[in-house]
Amino acid sequence: xxxxxxxxxxxxxxxxxxxxxxxxxxxxxxxxxxxxxxxxxxxxxxxxxxxxxxxxxxxxxxxxxxxxxxxxxxxxxxxxxxxxxxxxxxxxxxxxxxxxxxxxxxxxxxxxxxxxxxxxxxxxxxxxxxxxxxxxxxxxxxxxxxxxxxxxxxxxxxxxxxxxxxxxxxxxxxxxxxxxxxxxxxxxxxxxxxxxxxxxxxxxxxxxxxxxxxxxxxxxxxxxxxxxxxxxxxxxxxxxxxxxxxxxxxxxxxxxxxxxxxxxxxxxxxxxxxxxxx
Length: 278
What we know:
Elements: E1 2-3, E2 19-24, E3 30-35, E4 44-45, H1 52-59, E5 64-67, H2 72-81, E6 87-90, E7 100-101, E8 111-113, H3 115-124, E9 139-140, E10 153-157, E11 162-168, E12 173-178, E13 181-182, E14 184-185, E15 190-191, E16 193-194, E17 196-202, E18 204-208, E19 213-217, E20 221-229, E21 232-240, E22 248-251, E23 259-260, E24 264-270, E25 276-277
Parallel strand pairs: 2-24, 5-6, 9-23, 17-24
Antiparallel strand pairs: 1-3, 2-3, 4-8, 7-8, 10-11, 10-25, 11-12, 12-13, 12-16, 14-15, 17-20, 18-19, 20-21, 21-22
């Protein structure tokens, strides 16, 4: 779980993550969840607390779930219910092993970890070290360079910032921008890119929870999606049949949308958000 408050930027680890989720939280802000599969990162942070819908996304991969606590709903109900589908690494509940504080940022934006520490601490807990043969998405080979469009730009507004993507046909990927500035990973000074951008329109609201009013994103069920890949947009549907089921993507005819191999950014936005592209 990664903070996106302005004091937490620029965050570390994006360029090494295989899948990144972004969704609204409370206080008109948003938060990220990075999923690391084949890549490793020397720095990951700043690490923050969980919200229920992020736990349900993490459960899709039966992942080691790294976070600094969470709201009462997460801690008292969601994490216990998902105990068979995630491996919990909560810094505030006996899981401080992989985390440390840096002195170049003020708390609470200074909690960091890295891939080596996460792997070491997972082994210490006797968590499994290999992928567990879970459902997977459909992938396809790249379109030949001669058939790719010259450009595409995508703009995704959140309340706290605007996310942009600029397609580069030479690499068949999208340069990622935050508030019109190219996003660079301070862990390795690499430009952050996406090979696939999945915009999921999902119901967002603030609802009573166990401790106070909390955000809710409805990420189980189905809804409109736009998939951007190889300089083109495909309008279709996202579907997640249960809290632990993999979110899958379908085109207007009901066929699975194949993604190209590489980084996937899953952008959850409230229904009605004015996502634009050209």
